[in-house]
Amino acid sequence: MKHIYKGKTKLRIQIDTKCDLSGYEEINVIAKKPDDTTKTFPAVVKDIENGLIFFDIQEETDFDVSGWWTLWPEVRFDDDRTACGRATKFFVYESGSV
Prior knowledge:
Blueprint: E1 4-5, E2 12-16, E3 24-32, E4 38-42, E5 44-47, E6 52-56, E7 67-77, E8 82-84, E9 88-93
Parallel strand pairs: 1-9
Antiparallel strand pairs: 2-6, 3-4, 3-7, 5-6, 7-8, 7-9
């Protein structure tokens, strides 16, 4: 993953859930900010059988805090089963930092 900067919107995050998503009803990506609050991003399915999803950053306020963030996918299937993917951490930088 390349650097992610606070307040920037030209970014697509792609996640491999490693799960067949056949029969999914809703998929969200949960993001835990450095201040321990969370944000929910609706995800788009790119490949159902291989479990690839993505979401695009839409607003400057989507990644609005610099520091360590944690992301994980949550899936709800049409029979009300749920699945949660493995979390990953990444750093959001201030503009102009390295």
